Backbone:
């Protein structure tokens, strides 16, 4: 061991942390790390995780093992930071960076001897990993900040102690295990240690992130000047990003059988080149499903890849799919390291497309609704091109594309050539028979492709003539398909649907079952890991089933971000769904299987409905399947039978848009869940009261987030929730009351109080908040439940404001923010919302400068770390900064900040009341600047204000009349959500 006195002081610190953490292990760990040639690294750890993945594929534990990959990524970031500042510190023959991997590998190796232990430890480690910062984001700050170095060592020590505790748990003596053979009992012995270490990590992480803000602010100015100086000296230097162009990111392999579409390829090339260099040129390819629109776009991309610097493929049927693919595009462009911040990725990709000099091509596949594209295709670039494919011809008129291309079916002779070429037989097929078959299926390439799979799947002696005979014999058997209800089936001829029916009928039962199942899911990205959960026989049975579906060309297999997925052709999906509808009982069973499979992978709400920012990526990954199931359930007639599982999935799905303030999407799924529960003959009983209350509470939060337009209904729902929870709580024998019961009742009182605060009834919120706080204190201490107490103190701060108790309000809000920082971590939407409220309270309490600085910091995090520039919370921050700059008489800066949310209002979903308020404040800034547009803007804002008051608050019209010649700010503030920020809390009652 190196002599401590010979090491720098920072090295001594690392050595001490390591020795303190490893002391409980004594010899086992030190012996492991002393093995000659033993090397521990990110790569060896990844190999171990992959080995465990292979070992447990298809088993429930695989979900827990998935969480080890993000953990490894976070530890790799930690390793880089440690290497940057801890060179020379060694112990047990390994430096601190090596120990990161050695201790993890040792822990997992011990755990892998028992599946129960492995699942528990993997779950704990994954949860631990979600709290780690992205250390390498702050690599430049370490050399100049001793405080950051210290906090990094503390976090490192928390991690090592966590693993050591796990090792101790796993290596109990045989005598101990014999005495306490049951896992829960053995687990209880160590639960407190794990919780204590996790709390320590949360505290250190919060302090670490906070310190990066302080250190970053100190050097920001000098860095900005340095960058400007470098650019002036080296104006031609390009970015040193690791991104290598050209980029070619298509999730589809090239079709080697593509043929018979040369005219269309040339027409598409011509259309895209007509206006090249003036505006982003675009072409809409429209036509029947199965006519070959997607294949044409794929072939065009492959043939012309040399003409572009970047080509990206975007699935465009649903907004959630587009957002996911934009996030992937941002990662490929080096604009982000993660796929979990979709809003920010959309903004960054749009910025790159508009600002780059490179030539790019975007392919938006299968657009169903032109409105979905608003946030994505609003570009001013002059060197980009886009292809849009759609079955909906009306989109051609809705969407302002440069040109259009109508894809028509192949004529019989061309269809015959396509069919024979796809067969790849060594002997000649009868061209006349091929023409007859092509004519029978209206020359649709998808049908012809499925026919090739059918013929080739029989045997080498089976020819097109044999298929034609079988086709004619079965034509009448499948005539009912031609009478399908709905647009999707009526597009296709009876003969083409007969081809689908023949292909499906030939499948083995298990292949038919899987085809039925995936027809209910998002067709563009069906994760194979999820599908393997469906197969009770495991991986081998699934592989066999997939082979049947692929050989018949009913599905395609691809990979997205190294994850294997299946895709189902939409005409095939529609056909299978139509078939399922012929037997509604069977349809219901398949639907139940699909929702059960999705339930296994889709994140669940926390028991107390706390924010779960760390699960956003998982929500986004599986939400397209939720939307698909929701549409089927919502649109089926007669209605499908519901289940507890479906309702809980919809409720959990509503949790994500609530956290992201995607109110329209959240209200759709949550309203369905609420309606289902209310329609049951027995009403709301003890079996489903929790999910009903959670659903209703989320709806109320989303409605109040809209401001005055949803406030009345939201408050009514909060009142309903409080009554239901109180009745349930009172019905439980005191000895059976749990901590969850108390917290849920406390939250219902808190939410009721929030409804009052939204309505500016601040002092009336005092009593329910006191009840909520008393219930929470009965559950435990503040340090144990930081998030719950943070919410309580935040709302109490507004009660103090309503009473003009300014010092008490500031104290309560500072304490709430401190607790939130420890509960959620700095770079979370929840923590930034608390900071936002703190800044608002500080302004009202007479601290405008500190308020402005905090609002600026929150704006940076919301815009650059959490969301996009046009997200609701970011727009709220732009407004707050603009308002405060106006009050500080920095008029030009105020105008710049306020203009952003006002200009974004048309394309964003910012509530009407927020838009009106920002417009009003901007008009006052322009008035102070003697701008001629001030009067018109104020008139516009006041018109919206009056309309909102007439519709939702006629009792305030008299107050409005008094403001026509004075400041209307109290009214504008009153109409927005409390989370949009208010600076006139004291003014409304005094008006």
Residues:
């Amino acid at each position: 061991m190196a002599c401590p006195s010979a090491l720098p002081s920072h090295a001594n610190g690392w050595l001490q942390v390591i020795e303190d953490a490893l002391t409980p292990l004594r010899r086992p760990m030190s012996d492991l790390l002393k093995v000659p040639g033993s090397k521990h690294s990110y790569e060896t750890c990844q190999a171990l995780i992959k080995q465990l993945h292979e070992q447990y594929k298809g088993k429930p534990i695989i979900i827990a093992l998935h969480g080890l990959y993000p953990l490894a990524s976070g530890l790799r970031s930690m390793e880089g930071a440690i290497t940057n500042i801890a060179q020379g510190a060694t112990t047990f023959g390994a430096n601190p960076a090596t120990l990161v991997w050695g201790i993890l590998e040792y822990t997992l190796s011990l755990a892998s001897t028992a599946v129960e232990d492995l699942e528990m430890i993997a779950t704990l480690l994954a949860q631990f990993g979600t709290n780690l910062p992205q250390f390498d984001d702050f690599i430049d700050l370490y050399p100049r900040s001793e405080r950051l170095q210290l906090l990094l060592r503390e976090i490192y020590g928390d991690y090592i102690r966590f693993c050591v505790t796990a090792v101790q748990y796993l290596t109990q003596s045989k005598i101990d295990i014999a005495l306490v053979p049951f896992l829960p009992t053995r687990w209880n012995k160590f639960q407190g240690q794990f919780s204590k270490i996790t709390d320590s990590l949360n505290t250190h992480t919060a302090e670490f992130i906070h310190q990066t803000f302080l250190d970053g602010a100190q050097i920001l100015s000098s860095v900005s000047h340095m960058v400007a100086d470098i650019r002036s000296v080296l104006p031609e230097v390009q970015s040193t990003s690791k991104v290598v162009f050209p980029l070619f990111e298509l999730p589809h392999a090239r079709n080697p059988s593509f043929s018979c579409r040369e005219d269309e390829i040339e027409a598409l090339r011509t259309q895209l080149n007509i206006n090249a260099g003036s505006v982003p040129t675009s072409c809409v390819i429209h036509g029947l499903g199965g006519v070959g629109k997607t294949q044409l776009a794929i072939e065009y991309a492959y043939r012309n890849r040399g003409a572009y610097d970047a080509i990206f493929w975007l699935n465009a049927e649903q907004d959630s799919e587009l957002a996911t693919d934009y996030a992937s595009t941002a990662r490929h462009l080096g604009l982000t390291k993660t796929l979990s911040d979709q809003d920010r990725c959309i903004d960054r990709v749009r910025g790159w497309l508009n600002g780059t000099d490179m030539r790019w091509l975007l392919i938006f596949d299968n657009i169903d609704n032109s409105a979905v594209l608003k946030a994505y295709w609003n570009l001013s670039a002059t060197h980009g091109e886009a292809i849009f494919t759609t079955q909906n011809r009306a989109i051609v008129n809705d969407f302002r594309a440069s040109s259009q291309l109508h894809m028509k079916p192949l004529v019989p002779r061309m269809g015959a050539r396509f069919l024979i070429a796809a067969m790849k037989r060594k002997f000649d097929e009868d061209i006349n028979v091929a023409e007859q078959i092509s004519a029978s299926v209206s020359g649709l390439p998808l049908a012809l492709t499925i026919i090739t799979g059918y013929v080739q799947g029989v045997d080498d002696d089976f020819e097109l003539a044999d298929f034609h005979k079988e086709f004619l014999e079965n034509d009448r058997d499948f005539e009912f398909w031609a009478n399908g209800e709905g647009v999707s089936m009526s597009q296709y001829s009876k003969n083409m649907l007969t081809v689908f029916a023949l292909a499906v009928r030939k499948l083995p039962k298990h292949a038919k079952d899987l085809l039925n199942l995936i027809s209910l899911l998002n067709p563009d990205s069906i994760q194979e890991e999820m599908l393997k959960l469906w197969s009770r026989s495991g991986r081998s049975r699934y592989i066999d089933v997939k082979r049947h579906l692929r050989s018949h060309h009913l599905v395609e297999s691809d990979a997205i971000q190294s994850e294997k997925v299946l895709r189902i052709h939409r005409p095939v999906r529609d056909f299978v769904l139509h078939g399922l509808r012929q037997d509604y009982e069977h349809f219901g069973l398949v639907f139940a299987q699909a929702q059960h499979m999705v339930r296994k992978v889709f994140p669940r709400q926390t028991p107390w409905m706390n924010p779960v920012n760390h699960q956003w990526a998982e929500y986004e990954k599986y939400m397209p399947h939720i939307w698909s199931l929701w549409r089927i359930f919502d649109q089926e007639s007669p209605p499908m039978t519901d289940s507890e599982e479906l309702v809980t999935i919809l409720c959990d799905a509503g949790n994500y848009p609530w956290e992201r303030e995607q109110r329209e999407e959240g209200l759709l799924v949550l309203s369905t869940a609420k309606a289902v529960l209310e329609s049951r003959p027995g009403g709301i009983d003890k079996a489903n009261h929790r999910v009903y209350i959670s659903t209703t509470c989320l709806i109320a939060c989303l409605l109040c987030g809209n401001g005055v337009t949803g406030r009345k209904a939201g408050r009514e729902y909060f009142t309903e929730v409080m009554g239901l929870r109180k009745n349930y709580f009172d019905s439980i024998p005191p000895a059976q009351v749990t901590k969850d019961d108390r917290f849920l009742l406390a939250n219902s009182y808190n939410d009721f109080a929030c409804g009052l605060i939204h309505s500016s009834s601040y002092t009336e919120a005092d009593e329910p908040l006191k009840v909520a706080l008393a219930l929470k204190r009965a559950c435990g201490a503040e340090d144990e439940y930081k998030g719950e107490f943070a919410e309580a103190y935040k709302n109490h701060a507004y009660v103090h404001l309503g009473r003009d108790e300014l010092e008490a309000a500031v104290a309560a809000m500072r304490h709430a923010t401190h607790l939130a920082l420890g509960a959620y971590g700095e770079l979370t939407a929840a923590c930034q919302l608390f900071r936002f409220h703190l800044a608002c309270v500080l302004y009202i309490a007479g601290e405008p400068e500190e308020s402005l600085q905090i609002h600026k910091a929150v704006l940076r995090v919301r815009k650059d770390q959490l969301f996009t520039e046009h997200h609701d919370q970011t727009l709220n921050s732009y407004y707050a900064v603009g308002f405060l700059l106006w009050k500080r008489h920095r008029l030009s800066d105020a105008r710049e900040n306020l203009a952003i949310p006002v200009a974004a209002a048309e394309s964003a979903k910012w509530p009407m009341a927020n838009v009106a308020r920002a417009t009003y404040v901007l008009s006052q800034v322009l008035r102070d600047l003697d701008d001629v547009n001030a009067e018109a803007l104020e008139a516009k804002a006041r018109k919206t204000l009056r309309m909102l008051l007439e519709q939702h608050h006629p009792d305030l019209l008299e107050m409005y009349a008094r403001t026509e010649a004075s400041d209307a700010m109290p009214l504008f503030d009153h109409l927005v959500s409390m989370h949009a920020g208010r600076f006139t809390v004291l003014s409304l009652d005094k008006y």
About this structure: The longest strand covers residues 384-390. The beta strands are 247-249, 281-286, 310-315, 360-365, 384-390, 403-406, 526-527, 555-560, 563-568. Residues 162 and 196 are 10 Å apart (CA to CA).
